[in-house]
Amino acid sequence: MEFISLVGGSFAMLLDPLILVYVVAGFLIGTIFASIPGLTATLALALLLPLTYSLDVTTALMACASIYMAGMTGGSITATTINIPGAPSSMMTALDGYPMQLQGKGALALGHAALGSMVGGALGAILLIAIAPFVAEASLLVKTTGKFSLLAFAIVVIVIAQRGNMVKAGMAACIGLMLSTIGLDAMEPITRFTFGMADLTAGIDLMPVIIGTFAISEILMQASLAVDSNKTAEALSKVKIRRRDFIPPLSAIREIGVVCYVKSSLIGYFVGTLPGAGGSMGSFLAYAETVRTSSNPESFGKGNPKGIAASESANNAVCGGALVPMLTFGIPGDPITAIMLGVLVINGIQPGPQLMSGQADLIAPMLASLVFSALVLIPLTLFLLGPYFIKIVSIRKDVLYGVIALLAVVGSYVATYSTFQMIMALVMGVLAYYLRKDGFPVITLLLGFILGPNLEEFLRRSLALSNGNPLTFFTNLDSLFFIILTLIFVYFLAIKKPLKSPVSDG
Fold it and tell me: Which Pfam families match (predicted)?
């Protein structure tokens, strides 16, 4: 209770004009970086890290928190307007956001994304403040076998969510898993599947895969449909956008339901507490759960606001969850919290169980900034800048996609400083383009690639600890829980009511 009071009192620090400027500037920078393919909020924080040396630790952490929240929110802008997620966590948002944009409801889609982000971000931060120590202890109960079963559960769920297209979805996921095995072995100092190419020793970096799969392939898709896409842009550019169009009507919010927002936020929060899980898995699971429980699952992927609300609520709630292992055990939940951990260590603050009691006065303002970013800066930014976001679609397609292509290629280079990885982004783009043309949902490919390394590592560790006995996954309660959960999802999504796929990659 004392810590909660301390956080409440920390909101007064935002009345300091200088601190407020840093927090708002951080949010705007994070939004811009997150909305441009290849330039993530992680990169923004990494580039701005040297500036934190000149700030006191409290101000630096408050600015980092606002960048973090913006990074989860900003990716929904281009995901909705041009079907290119600016961040991995917004991939599921594009599935329903872009169809709404094509229907002339882009402003409303961004409004639903902002509302979901606001609710998820605020709930995640509040849960972090209220129950962080308890959740940290619970997350430690998930051992190696349980982590493997959790990752396998995530892959199975997103594959079976492609109703009517599960075979191709499974094949795409397998391609992603295979690509993730290229490079150094996770357990032994040997290289695999490099075909004698030294550049593949470190494997294929995540950013080129994301940029190629979404940005490059989308550019190729639009190029093959140049005439139609230009007509669509002309039609959409004639729609008069008013700021009130970004405010979702109360009837639509009621239709989505409080349960959807809260449940998706809880999924995102608890997924965030697992190191390495990140916003992508949170939004995947929340979206799949929303499809499973919907009375009209075939409407997803065609412009259902409920899909946007679930995805954005979950990925922003991850912010609060990912800070739990970082603050209480010094284990970063994702790349951004890894950089924030660096800020703490640089300033002589040692994360651990005693941090929230011994140095709570340094941590409380950061959590206050997280809540402020969610409740104030997300809706305020959309209200003030939303009309400019939506005008992206009115830009000539040849100019727009030419600039995106340039940013994507440059972004893939900046992310890795490797010409080879930049070429891999182009290769992945061409591969994803042909897969999409043949009806393969490339989102499962990306999920397989993201989760592949940890899936393999936890599988091999589990088998090594049990002397090769696969029954270890059924005798450990944490693993058995996720196996049962997987079977429940398989039953409800694939067996009980097999329907046409609600998810489409365009």
Answer: TctA (PF01970)
